[in-house]
Each structure stands twice: as structure tokens, then as C-alpha cells.
Amino acid sequence: MISSSKLKSVDFYRKIPRDLTEASLSGAGLSIVAALSMIFLFGMELSNYLSFSTTTSVIVDKSSDGEFLRIDFNISFPALSCEFASVDVSDVLGTNRLNITKTVRKFSIDTNLRPTGAEFHSGTTANIIKHDEQVEEESVEGSLTLTSRNFDKYSRLFPITVVNFYAPWCYWSQRLKPSWEKAAKIIKERYDPEIDGRIVLGKVDCTEEGDLCRSHHIQGYPSIRIFRKGSDIRDDHGDHDHESYYGDRDTDSLVKTMEKLVASLPAESQKLGLEDKSNGTEYRKRPAPLSGGCRIEGYVRVKKVPGDLVISARSDAHSFDASQMNMSHVVHHLSFGRKLSPRVLSDVKRLIPYVGSSHERLNGRSFINTRDLGANVTMEHYLQIVKTEVITGKDYKLVEEYEYTAHSSVAQSLHIPVAKFHLELSPMQVLVTENQKSFSHFITNVCAIIGGIFTVAGILDSILHNTIRLMKKVELGKNF
Known about the structure:
The strands form three sheets. Strands 1, 3, 4, 14, 17, 18 and 19 form a seven-stranded mixed β-sheet that branches. By secondary structure, this protein is of the alpha+beta class. Helices cover 26% and strands 30% of the residues. Helix 2 (25-50) packs antiparallel against helix 8 and helix 4 packs across helix 6 (251-263). It contains eight helices and 19 strands. Strand 17 and strand 18 form a beta hairpin. It starts with a helix and ends with a helix.
């Protein structure tokens, strides 16, 4: 066995008997300062160990969410009717999807962006609307000409008033005119306004009666509206409770539609609305927009290539007056990729405070054409999108988000004005990685702090002690 005396010989910390040591006030002061310094530096090191630090790198996009990108949006157009509002997407690869409805919802709003009713359902309409063949002879004027002076009078006089809002320059209005006048003449003969008086067909020239057409939120020509006596209700928003007709425009279809409307009167005389209870496809009706604005919300999926998200007025059987189109809009929400929950976003900001500040850059911004810009104004937004990925120290992917920059402009257009969002996706992505600190490194730093301060304090104490002794010898006059 190793004796205790031999074991003591390897002691690194040999002790000096207490009787041989001397305490001093300077040493006590330095000890207190050293102890406080150790506590302060230990706290700083502990705070640094518990804090998060990250490194940012740029790498080639290695997205795990496939080839498609989801775009969520909620945008209000105070001067675009839900009747014709269309969401389209296109890209450089040739994708061209028009009037997306499956994942998009529309709500009528007034000029102050206040909702004026339930969700507006566009319904389904045929791609090709039937018209009469062109006739050589001059068509007979059978419909009643309505103006702002007599419109209310006739709409309240007859149980049913069907009105064609048209523009003489419109191609589709010209195609409708012969069949409309013939149908009006036939209905007038069958239901004489002076004898029967159950229905009358009228027409409004929107180039002459612009205020009347705007009051009924007419934005596309021709627009056929069905009014029932007592149903034209105006509230604080100026809403009109009536229906639009989207069926075929040949004479036979129009006459059948009017016959069905008249036939519904006895059974539904107490109702303000008109329901289509027929199983046929001769005509299609749905409520007319309650106001002239529309809030469009939903999402679309696009390929991760340069492309466009376009919101415009679109119809296969209507014409639009480009000078009257106003594509002013307010972006309530526009983001890319998966939606971030508040909890996830708070965790992300805990790691890197500036993440999440640019993934909704356009939110709450308004782009209003007050007519100072003139007519035919297209509003464009150029968005450059970059994916950001945050990974924790344990290789756990905390979040994937898309941030973007936005530059907006207005431009005069030769075509129908639109609101266009140009999408430019970066092939690179930003990778934010949490730097996890090792416990061994923390312990090493703590030991270095304690040992370093203890050693430096000992050196200072020795210098101070020897200096004091020297000064005392000088005072006593001793030689050395």
C-alpha cells in the first residue's frame, strides 16, 4: 500500500499554516472586488450561454413543399362588381387559369369597404351564350325606353320589369338587340301593358343614362336585370334587391324566360325575391350584386416560376367600358406559403427577431385611383419572393416562410384595367440556423473567469502589499 506521506507529496495545493499568514485591509478590499467581479462575469457568461444566436446563409432552394406555392389573399375593390370580378393566374411556362372560383370567395361591399350582404355566388354559366342569327330586316322597337326620369315610375307600376342595360358601341349589345326587341314585342302582344300589365320589357342606354346605370352597379354590357314590384329596396348602402339574367339571348329563350316569370306571379305574389324552380336550362338567374364593390378572399396555388396573379373584370358575353373601370384596391392580406400561427411566429422571433417582418409587407396598404391618374389605369405590384427556413440546434425545422419585397406602380393601359401582381421567385433561399452552445464550453469559461480573477487579484495584492511595506521602511529611514 502507498503510504500517506508519499500520497501527500503529490499535493498541488500545499497549505501554509494559518499562523504564518497575515491578513491585511488591502487584501480584504481586493478580495471583495474579486468576488464581485467573479459574480458579475459568471452572470454574463450564464446569460450568454442561455441566449440564442443564429447564423444566416444563402443556399440553393431545396424546398420540401413541392413545385407549387400557395398564395393567400384578401383584397377589397370598392369599384369592381362581384358580378364580373375574376381571379386569374399565369406563368412563363404557359399556365393560364382564368376565373378561379373553387378556392375563392367574393362578398359585395360598398365604397367604404363595408359588407352589404352574404357571400356572392357567381354560379355556373355556359361558355357560349346562344344568340339569334343576324337578320337583314330592321328590327321592330318593342321594348320600353327607360330613363332616369321614368325608371322608378315603371319599375313600381308593373309586377315584373325586365331591363336591358346596354351600350350602343358594345358588340354583345348589338347581338342582343334584335332578339330583345322581338321578344319585347311578343310579350307586349301577349301581356298588353294597358290591359294585362303583369310584365314589361325595357331598355336603358348607359351612354346616355350613366348615373342611372351606375346606381344599379352596371359595369358590363349588356346586363339584364329582373325587377319585381316592391323589391327594389334601398337601405343605407343603396342596395337593390333584384336578379340578373345570364341565360341564352335568342328570342325563344327570352320569351320562355318571361313566360316563366309571369307564371310565377300568382304562386309567389307575396314574395320579394324570385326563385327559379324549373329543372330546365332555358335560363339562369342569380341575385344581382348588392353594391358596386367586391371583397375577394381565398387562395390559389401557382408554380414556382415567374408569373402573374391578376384580378380583373371578365366575361365571355359582356363588354366593358375601360374608361369607367376603376381598379382601386385595399390589400388586407397577402402572403405566400403556409400560414404561420401566432405561437410559431413568436418562437421564430425568439430565435431571430427580424424574421416575419416581411412576409406580409403589403398588408393594410391602399392603392386608390382618385381619377387624378386618369382613365384606363392598371395597378401593378412587383413582388420578389425569397424563402426563409429556420432550423433549431437539434436540426428541427421550426418554420418555412416566404418573405417578399414589393414595388408598386400605375400604368396607362390600352386594354381593360386590371390589378396585377408580378411574382418573381428567387432560386435561392435564406437558411437561419440556431447555434447551440456546448455545456463544456460554458464550464471552461467559468473556470477561466474564476481562476483568472483569482490570479490577477493575487498579483495585485502582492504588489500592493510590497509597496506598502516599502513605504513604511522609507518612513522609518531604513536602508535597503
